[in-house]
Amino acid sequence: MSVDQKHFAILLDGALRVTERVMAQLRGRRVLAADGGIRHAAALGISPELWLGDFDSTDGLLAQKYPDAPRAPYPADKPRSDGEIAIRHALDQGATDLLLVGALGGDRSDHAFFNLSVAATIARNEAVRVVMTSGAEEAVPLLPGKKTSPDWQEGTIFSVLCFTQVGGLTIENAKWPLDRVDVPFGSTLTLSNIAGSDLEILLASGCGIAIAQVE
Amino acid sequence: MSVDQKHFAILLDGALRVTERVMAQLRGRRVLAADGGIRHAAALGISPELWLGDFDSTDGLLAQKYPDAPRAPYPADKPRSDGEIAIRHALDQGATDLLLVGALGGDRSDHAFFNLSVAATIARNEAVRVVMTSGAEEAVPLLPGKKTSPDWQEGTIFSVLCFTQVGGLTIENAKWPLDRVDVPFGSTLTLSNIAGSDLEILLASGCGIAIAQVE
């Protein structure tokens, strides 16, 4: 299968269940690994074209397991996360489409939160398509004024996460549809909806991410 | 030990490791369980004074395990999360201090995110002290203009999660101190700092939460 030079997958250090859907999403992408995220490479049967990391002592076992992965080292005392560094590298290469694998869940709630906020920012500021996945869960940033139509199966539980007040939220083809509703920050109105067929989500303003239990 | 009638613990359905610190934090509190959160009660050796839930079919096994817990049912098709309903109940009882147990981590990233945003909103709008814990992790909302001094051990890894741009962030007594720095939304500048003794965090504006790997 040919590789689209501008479509990237980035392996991050969060949770991952290897599913057929993840394998299909990975096809035809260039793959980068962000530090400990390389631990997912073997299970996915892929070799990253680049492994970005600080390669401090904690990576010893992984380094033994992936001796052939070309490395791009950076200092451990860096002001950016591993994931952000890998995403920046992909953007420098002209990335237009990012699949963030291992971006959700895991033991570190702070990493999971930062991945969400970085993905939302990248999608908005860089006009890049972003999908985050753990195999079990999948998330897509919502851009104001741009309808999002995730291909989630009918019956899939999904939520809209709001970083701010969200204005004019419209959800069509779901168990609880919304029509241009303003959702205050901290409201749980948008928690645990159920997708119908051809789910569509649109917000007028604010910063939101749709997330689903895809498996 | 006497119970402070305005200090509550709320058991939520996220991850929980029962630690000495959690047990100490629980002492002297009234305890409510939010739906599936009651599963933590036995491990903690406590009996909630009230179990709020929709008590649909999925709670069958838990209902057998906790037959004596007084129940406050509500409809399954509700516009609020279980956790928010329990928090509202505590506030109606005059709560001034909330310990949210099982509020972080778990299998549902959307629940974890909503717990963070609800906690931030409650702390700000209701002037209530809020601490969230999973035993392994602990989080405290940051209020603009009000210094936060978490009692986290020297060497503890912590991050400041920013829902918005945060203005004038000051971090004292940490490996990477900050002095009135504006942090854009989506920046990873505030990820993985290390607490010194007497950590102090202050922000001038915006919405942030400090979270630590306490165990």
UniProtKB/TrEMBL annotation, chains A, B:
InterPro entries: Thi_PPkinase, Thiamin_PyroPKinase_B1-bd, TPK, TPK_catalytic, TPK_catalytic_sf
CDD domains: TPK (cd07995)
Record keywords, A-Z: ATP-binding, Kinase, Nucleotide-binding, Transferase
Signal peptide range: none
Molecular functions per Gene Ontology: ATP binding; kinase activity; thiamine binding; thiamine diphosphokinase activity
Domain of life (superkingdom): Bacteria
Presence of keyword Kinase: yes
GO biological process, one term: thiamine diphosphate biosynthetic process
Domain Thiamin pyrophosphokinase thiamin-binding: 145-209
EC number(s) reported in the record: 2.7.6.2
Name of the protein described by the UniProt record: Thiamine diphosphokinase
Organism this protein belongs to: Oricola cellulosilytica
